[in-house]
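Re: the 1047-residue chain
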Amino acid sequence: MPHAFRFPIIIYLTSVYWLEFLRLKMVTDVSSFNKLFDYLEDKAIQVDKNGIYECISSIVTKLFSEYCQAMADKSKTKSRDRNLETIAVILLIEFNNPNRNIRKRSDVKAVLFGMLNALQQLKSCIHNEDNQEVEIGRMKRRVILMDTHAEREEILRDFAQRIKHGPRNRSVPPPGVHHTVTQNNYYNHAGVSLASECIQSLSSGLERTGNLRSTPINSTAKIDASLFLSAMTKRLSNTSSVSALLSSNGQRGPVIESFFQELRESALLAATASSDSVERGKKGFHNAMWKMTASLILIKPAIDDGLLFEITRAPLKLFEEESMKTIVECWNWLLSARPDMEMPFLQEMIAAWHSAQHANLGLFSKDDLHASSPLAPDEKMKKEVKPYRPNVAPHDIWIRFIQERIEIAKYCNRDQITMFTLMLQRSLAIKVGSSESLMTRHCSTAGTRFRLLTCGMSLLQGDVLPKSLAKNVLRQRIYSVALDYFCSEKKYPTQSGVELSEDIQIMLKFWSIMHADKKYIKSHMVGDLDGLVSERLHGGSIALNSSVSNFNSTHNFDNKSISSEFGRSSTMGPNNMGGWMNTVPLSNGGNTNTLTKRSVSRQQQRHFLAHNDSLVKDYTKKRWLILSLLSVEIETLVTNQNPLIETREALSGLLTHRDYGSTAVGNVGRQYEDAMKFLDDVRNRTTDKAWKEHARNAWDVSTALAVFLPNRFKSLVLENEVTILVQAHPTEVCHLDKALDFFLTKDSLENDSSLLPYVLSWKRCSPVKALSLLCPRTIPTHPLTAQYAVRVLSSYPSEAVLFYIPQLVQATRWDDLGFVKEFIKTISKKSNLVAHQLIWNMETNMFTDEEGLEKDPEMYERLVPLRQAIENGLSGAAKKFYTREFDFFKKVTQVSGKIKEYPKGQQRKTACVKALQEIVLQHGCYLPSNPEALVLDIDRTSGTPMQSAAKAPYLARFKVRRLGINQLEEKGIEYSEKEDESVIANNDHSDEYWQAAIFKVGDDCRQDMLALQVIELFQYIFRQAGLDLFLFPYKVVATSPGVSNIR
């Protein structure tokens, strides 16, 4: 079009563009922006027939883009943010201009609060046709109204429609913030119905796609209309009630103190065991939180430090999921209603976060390294075995809140970014594989852990943080915490359903972010030569950049120096770059303060460049380990969640269907395909040389990481390399029982390696592993390994060893040096029940036939003196207990031999009942198959012969009282000493029951014992893992050749 204009018009249009362009560049305030609308509202230009108005409109659009770019380039200050907010509101108001072209140029949907306020004021004057204009907003922006009511309604409907479409079609604040701002604008507002409709339509849209999350607070996708209205109602009711209390009392101190007292008492009540008290406590806690938040809002502009402290420390008083949801709702309300308190609030909230960390709550809880193992089934383990899950749900909600605040701060507040960076620096440990890890490694916490790491990665990727050593340290910490999760046995999920789906999604998101981190760890991006040289020349140890340090001093933050976590070697000189990469050695010269960067030699610069390259290589190695290990973990979780889906294509389709579409979470199905493709490359394309290098890299990061690496990658080369590393450095891994698998190999034992004595100081392993060291079927036996195995077995309670009596007796086959025999003698003196079970099992294994005629050529000569030694070790009450128990059980067992002569049927049944009636009950006895219960009586009419071709097993019932192994032994000894029935008398009959038992003669049940042992171990393992699988192992004890007792 311009080529058709005359020269003066072209000069005019060019002058307009360059004049306003220079104005916007030089003076980027609201007055410069307003000039653009002066051109659009010029009546002479609007009525021009030559098309000048279209050119002016294009110029304004172009200038607006230039203005936005100029504002983006400015530093993120509060004044800039206020200007942008004002301009956004101006554009919203100008959308109501009668001129359609101006409305088109003003089409923005960025400020929700301004939208609803403008709608409120326009609606209030729509019916007054005498009023031809209205002033909107704090700027008193003038809007000319149309002449007729119908035209005004049409423009108002158009404006309302644009507001409704805004949250759906454009970038908006995080959902929690969007929610809170809308609620704040809800009170007594003409836009109330529109806001409700907007929230409900967004929720229904998400429901149609099946993408609602289980956690309503701070969810990245869900805005629930019911929760919205509930929160709004709570805000209104608490604001009105607290306002009345404050105004009626006159002094706010007593009122606020009563809220404090209510919060503390409710938290204590919620911690009690009574379910009614817990519910009342939680309700009172929630009410107190809302009241305190309302109080802090109502006293504006004053800030009550005590109120702020109690509100931010609330999670420490009641660390529970529902309470945390209420707390975050109150926090969002406070930040929306009191933007002036953002910085003080965040400082207190971050301090509360670190207090939760020091209190070992939630994500920072300690793993129970001394928890009972299902492979050592003592009485405590049998009672307590259940799936253990740290209480991380409150932390997960807290991290979602932090994630939203970080997303907001990234675009408007540099100080807040510094605060969150410091928080992450202190929360993420840089040491990998420590037994005192800051975070629990439990599988159910994976989603929460990687959500926190995702927050950190969002700060690293982009220009949010300046290029500095502090940024490198944060990346090191994130990498370290990600790797630390894999420094334990491979775990299987205890969570399921939606919770497991969310964990998979966040882990896939972190995997994608980590995969994309490759472009951010290049030498020119991670290095900061000028900063390093400058700090080095001034004799400083670099831990954080200057902006962080300045912020520390301003806000009195008590932060650990990054470099203080690692001691510097005394042998390091000023030019030695050895040691940890996060610190730069101090210069020893006293005259370096006068140097400048220009005086640094090229050799020193090359030295720093080489350091940057080594840093990049270090990141690259760790990144490969994280991606590989995370891919295996994702594969495990997805397979566990969908065990019946066989192909990856089907799994990918299922995950895509569950995804949030085009939201920030990303396409989960596509991310899963990428992760599995990477995993296939790791498994199929990694060369032997590469596996060795990866093993050494993992060892350099953490010995624990290297030891558990073969658990996740089935590679013989990897196992061999880890074996070499463990045997070369046994002292570095002797605290890991898993490392024993690599230290004790066939070659090292056969060659009598000089390193074998280290096994004597190794960490205790499971009883199963210890027993395997006494048997040459897996690896050769050795005196040192036998000593270690005996030491391990001695460290477990006697009732745990009782479970493995058959294996312990069999271990005497290879006990040439007598370690097992001595252990058997020792433990027999410690526990009478173990002595009894050992004698019964030895009686069984002395012979090879069921009649006890053919002696076992290996075991008989070994077991006869050992049995005699056990019997000789019993004296006094223990001897009486042994004689009474064996005499009673012999009489019960002989019934089977007596009825064998009678024909099957009623005659055998009658003979069985008669034989039972002849047995005299001896108090203080138990059944061999049930050493936890004391026999009180015999149902002499219950004798029932069982069906058998050549033998005569029978069933009888006994009245027993469950005491437990230890208490039964105490009662048995006490009865032997006093021989008084009052010892075993008990008025409480709740633990008494009738126990059926089968007695067999002439049948070898040793294989049954082994099978039922395995089933019972799996029962404990399944219960600990939280698997809903039912097993009911019964007990079988062989007491002599061909004789057994079955519970």
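The chain has a mean pLDDT of 77.
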